[in-house]
Specification:
- Helix content is 16%, strand content 46%.
- It is built from two helices and six strands; from the N terminus they run αββαββββ.
- The longest helix is centred in the N-terminal third of the chain and has 15 residues.
- The chain has a single domain, classed as Thrombin, subunit H (Beta Barrel), CATH 2.40.10.
- The protein has a six-stranded antiparallel barrel.
- β1 and β2 form a beta hairpin.
- It is an alpha+beta fold and 118 residues long.
Amino acid sequence: MAAFDYDKARATAERLITKFGQRGSLRRITNAGPDYDPVQTREDFACSLVDLDHSQAHIADTLIQRGDRMVYLSTEGLSITPTLADRMLIGGIEHAIVDIQPLSPGGTVVFWQLQVRR
């Protein structure tokens, strides 16, 4: 039996997210200098994403709050791995990243699923 081609699945996800999604940015804030007087720098990384609402069924009795967004983040052109310390810019509005789940069967990240909060 031939192995599944996860690179092809990633290419399909990238194409669909680009076609049906929007452009955004992943913002990384880094601290430099002494702890008592740090200098913060912001660097934005352009990305493609799909921004979705959570259904009411997911909101009740879970860690998902009303107003949280589910984001499918493409790996295409993204030079960093998202972290919980990063911020997601959607339509110019900054969102905190609450949860990150990679879809990575076979060790290949096809796309990132993020839960973001304003």
